[in-house]
Design brief:
Pfam families: YjbH. The chain folds into three domains: 270 residues, monomeric porin ompg (Porin, Beta Barrel); 133 residues, 2-Layer Sandwich (GMP Synthetase, Chain A, domain 3), CATH 3.30.300; 271 residues, Porin (Beta Barrel), CATH 2.40.160. The chain has 710 residues and is mainly β. The N terminus is likely disordered. A hairpin with a 3-residue loop joins β13 and β14. The longest helix has 16 residues. A 13-stranded antiparallel β-sheet has the order 20-21-22-23-24-25-26-27-28-29-30-31-32. α3 crosses α4 and α5 packs antiparallel against α6. The protein contains ten helices and 32 strands.
Length: 710
Amino acid sequence: MAHALRLGTASALALLLAAPVAAQDRAVTYTLYGTPGLLEMPTALSADDGEIAGTLGYFGGQLRNSFTFQVTPRLSGTFRYSGIQEFLSGGDDLWDRSFDLRFRFNDEGIYTPMVAVGLQDFLGTGIYSGEYVVATKTIGDAVRVTAGLGWGRLGTHNGFTNPLGILGDRFETRPTTFDPREDEGGTPGVDAFFRGDAAVFGGVEWAPNERWILKAEYSSDDAYVDARDQPLFDYNSPLNFGVTWRPMPGVQLGLGYLYGSQLSFTGTVTVNPNEPIFWSGLDPAPQPVAVRADAVHAAQSWDRAALPEATVRDRLALALRTEGVELNALELTDRTARLRYTNTRYRTEAQAMGRVARILTQELPPSIEQLTLEPQQAGIPLSSVTFARTDIEAFENEVGGSAATLAQARFDDAAGRGGLVDVPPARDRFSWGIRPYLALQVFDPENPLEISLGAEVSAAYRIQPNLIFSGSIRQRFVRTGDSEDDQFNPGTDDLPAVRTNAGLYAQNDHPVLQDLTLAYYGRPGRNLYSRVTVGYLETMYGGLSTEVLWAPVASRLAVGAEVNYAKQRDFDQLLEFRDYDVVTGHLSAYYDFGNGFHGEIDAGRYLAGDWGATFALDREFENGWRVGGYFTLTDVPFDDFGEGSFDKGIRVAIPVDFIFGQPTRREITSTLRSLNRDGGARLDVEGRLYDIVREGHYADLEDSWGRFWR
């Protein structure tokens, strides 16, 4: 099974390269399915809130690669990519994508167990489809006992008539909602949930210490057959036995003996954004707040002859520059200071704002009492936050000082430019860099994992702070897989090939133009933001992209509109274009639900000319981690869309300062799509407004305000 071995090696390497985390509850381990549980069977346990687990499991010719996220303390989701050797009728391997959801109803009590309900493979081909209700109880400090009731494939060993049949005869028969030999999969099998025969499962775990956990389970799964109804392996017993070893925090290795005939192997790496590697970070110490004496605090003016305004401006710009903050413009009166600045170092605007406020107490004349800070990015001001200097002096070392500072601050839209004096930019208008890049193409049945490795040269020239010319060139050095597997798809009149030829863009051995754009950002009115980008917008498309966003500073709701003209680039990724072009556009609504949850709905026209909407929900942690999922439904029929039925995926963003501890605004982003198809495909334009603007608005500032005094 060459594909399986290639994917397994890459997955194991990715797990070993993941960052370690702090120790977790020793009783929470992961199954071969990548979910909290025993060996194959689930338990009712939940991982720590926010925990992310990557699991590689293998037995009986099956390779399972799983990504599990503990979305809330009670809700978790899993994305799984599995390979089953020689499953299909012709003896070919099957590569299958599946999604799980699981919810825990309660915490464990003194006498009562914790109880959870789960949907396994509810959004896939249905190879592993099943539902369950499970209860787990701790006995003493080291033993946990689990018992559950399963349906679907979890109801195939010693099954009995569904007890839910008392609610209606429809529960006694399970309809066939998926056929992996014929169906495209990817749609929920709602009609089959908790239908058909049920069966019991259970098990016990014993943890003699924090490193070792011994397991035994009774499995209710007897559905290990291929598409020809031939067994995948010899099934001799429903009893499974195994052990999990934790050699270090965040790493689990498992060995098992399953079904009386098969050895199993698991490896899991966990990371929790709530538990940073560097608890206090490696940020340089901030400037202390300079507290004015009572005599000068009462002064109503300052002597400009002794301390000229230009001198204050120059000293302030220099002091801010040492903190990675660029002073863009400044307005000074006897009692007030208003400054517009760009944070180039700190991930959160709240931390940069705290650093700026400290420096102002050091550098401004004593008579100035009101401090108005206007952070900007891409040359546009994001908000206006006004402090009393007296509060900054009073709250720096007070218990609860962060909350008190936030409560006294006044938030508003940034004012106009009247009164501001521009400060010459300290950094060069031209910047460039060279770095290695790693590109992944996953989930293609012919090439489950394809890796490209090379170098990227990028450059940018800031004609004005809000007018930016930028681009990047890539040279590939290494590519795994066979380029001959990438076949040209001509598309159809009903569904043009707008993304399925992506592999052809990755075949070039010569340097390629990744992107080359001119972007203009503006503030057309109060609470309004705009963007116009023209050029080679992304790997596959060039054209013109326009956007406007309405986003009041103190509102959790933002609304945007985007219209694009896109023309497909030639496969060589140089300057030529193909003959396909399209006008796309979306109306978007963004909402901050609080506690780090952000929702987004985009409705409109996609690259293939199809109409529909994308729904997304992301969770952002205080330290900058983001984990979320999305799905897109359009008027492209599921059969025309192809395998997967509709576009869906998981996206992750990891802040670089989480790994290295040093302050930086850089992050590593990745999107795991079930498949790269033509339906529901959207233009990939850098610099969309919402993610830029919301950093300086109240909701984001409030979420990260704990970093104000750091």
